[in-house]
């Protein structure tokens, strides 16, 4: 059969070349029979001519749009002319049949424009599978839960739908954080996301991530999400989850007043919201935010 061509967008800052090399090698090792082109997009760094290449087609670009993940990914999307677009972070790895399995899924799902899959969270020497327990992800699902397995490195979508209907990644989100959740919500509003509930991507969680401790930006991006997706606030469990995350962010910023205020909002939406005790413990000084995150990450969970 004529397999659709796939373009893979890999954003990087050029400061972890060994991990980037592993990510590209995993893309090159896919058992997919169609044409694959990879766009490595250097964000807030000039391509140094030493970007690792693989046996497949690799193009190296500089982010010529808004600095950050959203601009870098959009630079790659617009530079590629493939039938499908996939994303992969420079510190993640695809399992060998990830691409073929997802393309096959899109081809047999009527109307499907967007696909995701389960992940293996790698943290501190452990690998924890995170699965959705379902074969499709709806807009309502993503309002209630961020669903960590619907991760940007699992995304595969129809390029025409992405550019012409779903829309490119929003470059106005503070710090390009939660830009993948925003994109998934917009995609799922049009059609449910086709989901392969198997761990086909290895996702590294690290305390050294570019975004791991940017609490001001995390809080601002969550508030942006509440403003641009008012349906979140109308979903009691989903609203409580975001309010609890904002509370935790303020607690890490040592803003006890705002942490308590947002914790109260979370409890009014859902008295069982699990993030509130963590946020209040950090706000009180009983424990550090880093310690809480390490304990959660060791179990394959985030705040």
Q: Overview of this structure, please?
A:
This protein is an alpha/beta fold and 303 residues long. It folds into two domains: 6-204, Alpha-Beta Complex (Spore Coat Polysaccharide Biosynthesis Protein SpsA, Chain A); 215-297, no CATH class. Helix content is 41%, strand content 19%. It has eleven helices and ten strands. Strand 1 (6-12), helix 1 and strand 2 (36-42) form a beta-alpha-beta unit.
Q: What's the layout of helices and strands?
A:
Elements (H helix, E strand, L loop, with lengths): L5 E7 L4 H12 L7 E7 L14 E6 L6 H11 L4 E4 L5 E2 L3 H11 L5 E10 L2 E5 L5 E2 L1 H6 L11 E3 H8 L12 H12 L2 E12 L10 H14 L7 H17 L3 H14 L5 H10 L4 H9 L6
Parallel strand pairs: 1-2, 1-4, 2-3, 6-10
Antiparallel strand pairs: 4-9, 5-10, 6-7, 6-9, 8-10
**Overall residue-averaged pLDDT value:** 93
Portion of residues in helices?
Answer: 40-55%
Distance between the termini: 44 Å
Report the sheet with the most strands, covering strand number, pairing sense and barrel closure.
10 strands, mixed
Tally of strands: 10
Task: Tell me the CATH topology of the largest domain.
Answer: Spore Coat Polysaccharide Biosynthesis Protein SpsA, Chain A
Shape, per Cα inertia axes: globular
**CATH architecture name of the largest domain:** Alpha-Beta Complex
Overall tally of domains = 2
Radius of gyration: 19 Å
Question: Order of helices and strands, N to C?
Answer: EHEEHEEHEEEHEHHEHHHHH
| Poorly predicted runs of 5 or more residues | none
Work out the helix count.
11
Structural category is alpha/beta
């Amino acid at each position: 059969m004529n397999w659709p061509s796939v373009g893979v967008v890999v954003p990087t800052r050029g400061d972890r070349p060994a991990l980037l090399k592993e990510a590209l090698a995993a893309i090159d090792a896919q058992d997919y029979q169609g044409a694959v082109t990879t766009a490595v997009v250097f964000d807030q760094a000039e391509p140094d001519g030493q970007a690792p290449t693989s046996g497949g087609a690799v193009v190296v670009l500089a982010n010529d749009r808004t600095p950050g993940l959203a601009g870098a990914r959009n630079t790659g999307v617009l530079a590629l002319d493939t039938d499908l677009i996939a994303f992969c972070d420079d510190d993640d790895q695809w399992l060998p049949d990830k691409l073929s399995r997802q393309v096959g899924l899109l081809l047999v799902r009527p109307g499907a424009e967007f696909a995701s899959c389960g992940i293996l969270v790698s943290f501190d020497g452990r690998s924890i599978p995170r699965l959705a327990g379902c074969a499709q992800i709806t807009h309502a699902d993503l309002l209630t839960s961020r669903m960590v397995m619907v991760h940007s490195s699992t995304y595969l979508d129809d390029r025409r739908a992405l550019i012409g209907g779903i829309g490119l990644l929003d470059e106005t989100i503070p710090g390009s954080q939660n830009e993948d959740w925003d994109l998934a919500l917009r995609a799922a509003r049009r059609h449910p996301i086709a989901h392969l509930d198997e761990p086909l991507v290895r996702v590294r969680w690290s305390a050294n991530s570019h975004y791991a401790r940017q609490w001001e930006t995390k809080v601002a991006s969550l508030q942006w999400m509440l403003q641009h997706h008012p349906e979140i606030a109308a979903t009691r469990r989903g609203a409580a989850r975001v309010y609890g995350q904002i509370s935790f962010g303020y607690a890490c910023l040592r803003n006890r007043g705002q942490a308590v205020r947002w914790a109260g909002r979370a409890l009014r939406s859902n008295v069982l919201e699990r993030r509130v005790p963590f946020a209040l413990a950090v706000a009180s000084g009983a424990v550090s935010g880093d310690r809480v995150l390490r304990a959660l990450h060791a179990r394959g969970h985030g705040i």
